[in-house]
Amino acid sequence: MGRLLEQKPELTRQDLEELIRKKKEKIGAGYLTDQGAIFLIASDLGVALGEPLKVEMSLKDIYVGAKEITLETRVMNVYPARQFSRKDGSQFMLRNMTVYDGAQRAKVKLWDEKATLPGIENLKPGDLVRIIKAYVKSDLKGNPIINVGSGSSVEPNNTQSKIPSLDEITDDVSSVRENQQNLVVSGILDGSIRTTEFTNFKGEQSKALQLRLKGRDGAVVRAVLWNKDEGSLPRVVSSGAKARLIGVSTKTGQMGLELHGDEGTVLEIEGAKEIAPVTARILSATKADSGSRLLVAVTSDRRIVNIADPTSVTSEVSPGDAVEITPSKMYGNTITLEQGSPVRKIDGTGIPTPSEARTKIRDVKPSDGLYCIEAIILKAPQKREIQTKTGESVLLSEAFVEDDTGQIWLKGWRSQARLLEQFTQGEIISITAVTAKPGLEGRTEAFLSAYSVVTRKN
Question: Is the pLDDT of residue 289 over 90?
């Protein structure tokens, strides 16, 4: 409107508004916007406005080749900016985003100086933004990608919007299906969170964060977040905490349907930043293949916990000792200690003894908890090779044990299978840190873990 009035000074704004009204009336309702009417009026007056119309559209309407488009969307996730090299050796910056405006999702690429727009790193999932004068290209699969270059911009948008909030597009993890992209899912944290290290296809050392989410129907789905570690998590996460993953896809893995994310995925978990000291009695100690010290303890409130000590700050602590420790992190039943984590021996009055920490077999139930049991071996441990769905052969050892309240199968996979090979029928054994899961015909089975220690009762 401003450009047309500059070139036709004899027209007032009121005159132009009346021309717009008449033009829309003549064309008919539903076919013309105010901006479109201005372009037709300019043509009638012999005026070239010089620039193509800025097209406002929703994500469902974008197409490869579109230019000068403006969109109102919400942020799903924002990736770190990366530097790359062109063929001529020059450098450029690139940052990826994912946005949504309801059921539709789209990738956004921010190039060069747009990758470091002021405030871009402060955008949070669910924030409303306006993408201005962008253009659309395709990815390798032909999907449209929104590009923000030198003539484009991304601006926070603080107006009211009909675009659903992040909570409104969050699905329970039990409802996910195969081949879904850019999902927001929630569930209950099932078990521990752990970081694994691996060598990627480029030969570089990388990490992955692994966890499991339980849905409303009780189904558990494994999640793997590539190139992420525990740095962004709360220091304290309780068992059964609510969690949400923002920006994940579904894939079929070794254990069935899985959720996969990357460094742009946002993991939200209910938790706390501050950790109070924990008083406990050490029940057992062993070492991982990496050399880390792995301990099992019973706390003053009678919980069985695993203690990961990679720097051996507990080197002076032995089974039976009562201690006060200040964890660096605490995820469910696993306590992590770091260099300098305070550990001191205490009197131990009121802290359960090893015998008081044991659970009778009748009380072992499938849950997120850990158990210590004492039982006699009714059936000597047997080892056998099991072939997984991927064709891998893994070792499984099984023993049938009982106490005066019931019987249970005790199983160890892979390296844990060797914990049972030294024992025979009729021996009484004490086992720390077993988990319980439903087995065949709904019967509960006990499983050894990396922290488990099995000893012969004298």
Answer: no
